[in-house]
Structures are given as C-alpha cells and as structure tokens.
Amino acid sequence: MTNAISTNKNYSSGFFEAIVSSSDDAIISKTLDGKITTWNPGAEKIFGYRAEDIIGCSTMVLIPKERQYEEQEILSKISLGERISHFETIRKRKDGRYINVSVTISPIFDEQGKIVGASKIARDITNQKKIEAELKENESRLNSIFDTTPDAIIVCNSDKIIKMANQQVEKLLGYSVTEIIGKSLEDVIPEEIQDLFFESTHQNSLLDNILSKTSERLTIKVKTKDNIKREVEINVSRIKNEIYDYLACSLRDIEERKKIEQELIQRAMHDPLTGLPNRIFIQERLTNALKYSQKNGSLVAILFIDLDGFKPINDLYGHETGDEVLKIISNRLAEQVRPSDTVARLSGDEFVILFEQVDQPSSLSALAERINTVLRRPIETEGRVLFLSASIGIALGNCNTQNADELLRQADTAMYSVKEKGRDSWAFFNENLQKLAQKRLEIINGLRLAIENNELSIRFQPIVESESGRIVSAELLLRWHLLGEEITPSQFIPIAESSRIILEIGIWVFRAACQAEKEWRIKWGDKAPTVSVNLSVRQLSDVTLVDEFSSIIHEFDANPNRILLEITETSLMTDIENNILVLRQLSALGLRIAIDDFGTGNSSLAQLTRLPISVLKIDRIFIEELDNSDESRSIIRAIIGLGHSLDLKLIAEGVETGNQRLRLCAYGCDFIQGYFFHKPLMINDFTKVVSNQLLITTSAETTLLLYALIYVSKASQTMTKTELMTLQKQTINNNLDSGISGCLLYREGEFMQLIEGQRQQVLALYDRIKSDPRHIDCKIILESPVTNRAFRDWGMVMHYTTESLTIDQMSIDETVSLFDLAKDPNFCYDFITSFTRKKEY
Fold first, then answer.
1. Fewer CB within 10 Å: C terminus or N terminus of the chain?
2. Which tens digit of pLDDT belongs to each residue from 104-116?
3. What residue ranges define each of the domains in the chain, with the CATH number in brackets?
C-alpha cells in the first residue's frame, strides 16, 4: 500500500512538472519575503530571464519602481491566506520593456498547513490590451462620428423599435436621444405621410417598402415631435449578423439644400443686375414654346433689342451709371408686355422679349414702335439726364422653325439691319436679310484668310494743293478680291471692325504705308508725297498698337513725320479719354494725326484742343451739297475758320466738280481730295502721275499759281451803307463760284479792292468791274503772282467818316484819299491786307 502511494505521488509530481514546463504562462513560486524559488520556461519567454539567472532574486526586479508597492500589498494578502485572481498590472522584462500581465497568485502551504510562500501564474496580455485600446479608440471615434455626422441616424430592430439614435435626431425631429429610443419608427414616418410618396401593397406596409429599399436614397416626409412635417432624404442600411438584425436609417434634412438649389437655379437662370431671365432661361423657354408650336400650329415671336448709344454712357460715366441705366431700361421693357410674355437680358445692352402665342403678327410692329418711343424718353440718374434709343429685330417662329438658336439668330440679323440703316427703329426678319447675314458670315470667314491668301491690295488716291493741284500726299485705300469678285470697302471694313480681324488688317495696311513712304522718299526725295492711312477705333483699344507701329517704323526705316493717321470723328468720341492717350503716344512716335469725316460727329472745341492733331478732313457729305445748300457752305466755312484758328490744315474730301474746287479755294481750304483731280490709283499709275507732275515746266505750272490784283476806282455816285451791303450780297456768291477772295474798301466815294484767285478769273473779274457803271477811273495799283491768299474768304470793309485810320500801327490822316495811297503799291498791299486781322470785314 505504501509503495502504491509513493508511486502515485511520483506520478503526480511528474505530471505537474510536465504541465508547468509546457505552459506558455509564467509559473513562478516565491517565498514570503519575495525570493524567487521556481521559474518555468514560460516565465523565461515572458520576462526574458533564464531560471539560473533569476532564481534566488527578489521579484522586485520584475516590477517597475512606481508599482513596487503592489508587491507588498500582494504578499500581505498572501500571508493572510488570500488568493488573488486575474490581477492586471504592468511588469518589466529583462530588456527593460514594459508588458501588460494578468496575474493569479495563491498561497503555498507546508505539510503542517503553514503558509511558506506563494505561487504566481502570469499571462502576457500586452497584445490583448493593445487590441482593447484600439477597439476602445475606434468605438470612441465611431461614437463621435455617430454623434457629429450631419445626418440624423436611427437604428431600429426588425420590429421597427428604435434602439439607437444620434444627437442630430434632436435637431431634426425635436426628440432627445433618450426620448426617441424605444419608440416605433412609425411614430416618425406615419402612414399618411408615406402615402404622398409610395404606393401601398397588400402584403407590406409602406414603411416596410421604405425599409426594403436598402442602399437607395429616397425623399420622404417625416413628422417631428411638434407634429411638423419636414422633407428629408432617407437611406436605409441593414446591419445583420448571428447575434442581431438591425436597420440603420440615415435621415438628411434637405429643406435648406432645396432652398439653396432654388437660389442657384435662380442665379443660373436670371441676370444678377436686373433680375430678368438670362440667355439660358430664354433659350429653354423658347425651346419649349417652339415644341408647343409644333403641336398646335401657333406662332412664336422674338424681339431682339440692342440699345443705341449705351457704350459711350458706360465709358464716360462709369459702370455704376451704366448699371442704373440698364435697370431703368429693364423696368421700361417689362411695363410694355403682358404677364405671359418674357423679357430677358442676354448680355451687355442686349435684351429679348419672347411672345409664346402670337395671334396677330401686325401687333408686334405696334409694340416695337411703342418700345422705341419709350426708350427714347430721357433717363434721369445721379443728377444727369441721359438719352438712348434702340434697334429692334423681330423674328416669327412656327412649327417649321428648327430650334431656339435659329430664331434668335434671325431676330439678331433683323436687328443688325436696323443698325446699318441708322438705328432707332425696328425691322422684321426676311429671307433677304438671311442672304445678307450669310454674305456677312462669308466675308468674316474670308477675311480671316485674306492676308494669308494674298487677296488684299492697295490703291492710292492723291491729295492735292487746292490752288495749284499739285500732289502733296496720298491716302492709302484697301481693296479685297475674293474668288475673283471685288468686295467693296463699305462691305467688308465695317464687318472687320466688328471683330478682331481689323487688328490684323490694320497692321498689314500700316506696313504697306511705311513701305510706300520709304520707297517714295528714295525715289523723289523732298518732293515725295506723304502718305495717309486710316486707323480703326478698334485698333486704338489694342494695347499693343503703339509698340507694333513703332517696330514697323523701325523695320522699314520710315519717316513717321511723313505718315498721317486718319481716324473718324465719330469713332474718336466713343472713348475719348483712352483715345486721346493712345493718339498722344502715336504722336510721340512722330506720326501725324488727322480727324476724318469732320463735322459729322459730336466733338467739342475743348476736346479738339486736347488732341494731338494737325489735320481736319471735311466730310464729303458737306462737299456734295456745296453748290446747293447755304447750310453746307456755312458749315464748311466755319470748319475751315475753326481749323485755321487752331493752326490746323484742312482737306476737303469728295471734291468732284470745278465749282466745288473754286469755292473751297476761296474759303481757304488747303488741300483737296476727290475725283475732280484723281480717282484712287494703283501703285504703278500713281508713280507715273507723280513723276509726270515733277516734269511740268515752270511756265505750265505758273498758270496754276495764285494771282493778286489791287485796283482803285471812284464811285459814279456816293453810296450808302445799305447800297454797299446790297453790292456785297450780289457779288459774294459770284466771286466764290470763281474761286475769288479778297477785300473791298470804300471811303469818301472811292473804292480800293484786292482780288485773289487764279490769274484768269482775277483778270476776268477786273474786266467786268471796269465795265460796271458804278466804277469810273479804274486803275491797277499792283498785280503779281502770290504764294498764298491774304484773305481766306471774301471780305468788305466800309468807312464813311473823315476820321483818320489807324490799322496795325499804320496811321492815315483823314485828308488822305484812297487814290493818294495808290501812289505806293507796297504800302497799299500792306494796308489792305491788314484788314485780315480786323473783325469788321
């Protein structure tokens, strides 16, 4: 029996040792004073110490300093026979690394039952703690996301009982989290609200239908705690595993988004300045109207309205004033239409009115006329009174109209035709306008390739001295041949100016002008004509213009003082401040500046004095009426007088008759351009004409020089002032028609007269005077060719008193007669020409 017991003990001891040795846990025994007595392989693996190195050492080597108090507490409890289970703490390995351990400690009893030590089983739970920490962090993060997500989230079970909710639920529905948990989802999504969005089925409730549409985002209405219905988007996700089956409902408040969407749609479809519908809106509305028209055969109409004169207002007074004007115009247009009609602003100063159902097309013309009248009314803003007008194009659409763009193009084409005819009116679109629009498009496309294809050519129209007819300059004129057909400048220049094509053409033309100037100067020296070239207002707005012109001048080694840039008066006034700045920069290069078509624009004397100009060109419209219109004659004389007072040279354009030329000479016009002398010439023909001119002999040239004659005579009877005025009126037009200028003096029954003009006309006039019975004892004092006229118009000075005369410091005693003065011809000439500076002639 004893042997059996001994054998059993040995077996148990061996079995226990096998378990201890194979365990991954650290199994350690120690004395009550903390000395380690046993150490298994698991302990070596966890703590890094071998048994032979650690047995006999204090357990304090395994405990961080800040936790050594735990060992005393543990030993105290062990000494009292207590068992400590799954105590989690931190211990230190041999390599100094801290680890998390779970420790179970039991007392060790001897055979007498006395506590002699303690056994400790320690398990490394470092990885477990790390995982737990990560899980806790993730849970915290998820809870934070759950509560901070902008959507309200409700989690319910399969019975639709709410089990979880986040903080956003209170903001959306008014329930606190604690209030809503335990409620049914049907309290939030009641049946009557669901009916608005879903169709019921016999098998499932509407809520079941919603919950079955997992991963879909639906728009529904929910009921808040205050029984208010709110529109939301709901997305349902299923959360299912072996333990539970939940549905997570994400509710997103879309009322604010809907409001923003409406605002964005409003902004996208309306003009922010005027509040009117914009191009996108009108195109969509017009497209729908045309579709409706195709179904019922009704007519659709578009009025395309472009403001005349808006750009100068915007440029002169600034964008704020321009914006106010556009608002006023918008209101005026809206007042003229029916509620069913649509007024839209396309861009800038362009407006459109859409009529979706037109009964009587003739009513559109009455409306257009009414709009023209309304828009002519003065506009009062910021203390200013401004004036505008409008060009209106009308297009009708029906079931045959292809699309909205086509109808808008037709109305635009009709509007453009109004612009070309003078503006401030209206016109219907027709097929002829379509052809013109097509032609315009062909010109635009053709111009883009004209330079590359060498289709442009130039002509030179001579500019001559008005008295001698000698060529002193030539205007470079552009010609274009497209597929063998000559396109007139009046056709393609306005179209080119409406696009950036004019910039390329302008550079090409200026290069040709510089080349001509250089070649002429080499060929003819100081007697070479100068060259003038037209400048578009579009070019003046090009920031590279001055640099490009400077580069071209240097490239050709041209003399800029012999190149005249012409810009029309109307174009110049479109942006006067910018244009003055650019023209001054061009003038600084040495280029001379001329105002073309002068008299047709609205420039002021103040503006003229600010411009760096040297030449005024009188518009041909006044020259055409020179023979028939007193008004035109007065305007021409005023322009010439103004120009000379500003020390400017005058060129008259479009001179076609000898009478026109003679009158202009008498008025003192410096130069003449027109078919009376020369039509535009090709370069070879121009070269021949100038070369032949330089070969003219002095004797032949003399016939073209000015001639002056002074005579004295006695009046056959004393003349009153009234009679003298009648005489002046009778003779002035005859003299001007003959190109005669000069001055007539009358004093104490004697005449003295200076006559200037072509020699033949001067001598012919003197012959008529000699045969006039009002003159006796006629005597020529002086006659001679002269270089310039002393009088640039016809003048008469009359004196009746016997007082002495003092003119320009020349004193004449009252007893001295005009015949006495005639004894000194040179003094007579100085005396009579001094009246050019006297106001009373």
1. N
2. 999 998 888 899 8
3. 19-125 (3.30.450.20), 149-258 (3.30.450.20), 272-429 (3.30.70.270), 446-700 (3.20.20.450), 705-837 (3.30.70.100)
